[in-house]
Design goal:
It is a single chain. This protein is α/β, with parallel strands linked by helices. Strands 2-1-3-6-7 form a five-stranded parallel β-sheet, with helices on both faces. The chain has a two-stranded antiparallel sheet with strand order 4-5. α1 packs parallel to α6. The relative contact order is 0.17.
């Protein structure tokens, strides 16, 4: 089993999503003998004209092969994984820009999805996706939650429909309760429940 662990928190040392997602990954490794592909999204380039034309192979694209290499590497990591763990803190009701950068690089036509006469079709085989989300005060699945519906839609677009959310909600109100709830869900995932 191979796990792709993607972390997007701007906070490196005290990030709840990093701590919880690493705990989940460690538990999966211990219980299932998994290996890990770790990807931190903080250093990924944001989408701009040059990057977009380069990864799409459009004429007059940037002379640099770097964006294409990065996109291909990220896509291969996604394809090789048997399970995906995403650390996605909620920033201002949505995902961090660094996670959006990763999404923009892996969502490539003819590589991870294609358009057909009946609509878009994801090209990735279904595998579990675990999304670890921490919020300050917003409840997930509320009208102010643009993280979980977006990530479910995105992964579904790629053909990955088994998305499980591990929530550490209300960290600004009761940090301990939020972490305890998330840890209970992590225990269930590790034990296969």
């Amino acid at each position: 089993m191979k796990i792709l662990s993607v972390n997007a928190s701007a906070s490196k040392d005290n990030s709840v999503t990093r701590i919880l997602s690493q705990r989940l990954v460690r538990g999966m490794v211990e219980h299932h003998g998994a290996s890990v592909i770790a990807r931190d999204t903080l250093d990924l380039p944001l989408l701009n004209h040059e990057l977009l034309t380069a990864v799409r192979g459009e004429p007059n694209s940037s002379q640099s092969e770097m964006p294409v290499t990065i996109a291909d590497e990220l896509i291969q990591e996604l394809k090789d994984a048997d399970a995906i763990v995403i650390g996605a803190p909620m920033y201002n009701f949505a995902i961090p820009a660094a996670l959006k950068a990763w999404i923009d690089l892996v969502a490539q036509p003819k590589k991870t999805f294609r358009y057909t006469e009946s609509g878009p079709e994801g090209l990735l085989r279904d595998k579990p996706v675990y999304v670890v989300v921490a919020t300050g005060g917003v409840r997930l699945e509320s009208p102010a939650d643009f993280v979980t519906p977006y990530l479910r839609a995105f992964f579904g677009f790629l053909g990955l429909n088994e998305v499980r959310v591990i929530a550490a909600e209300g960290m600004a109100k009761d940090r301990d309760a939020g972490i305890a709830k998330a840890n209970a869900t992590i225990d269930d995932v590790i034990k296969g429940r």
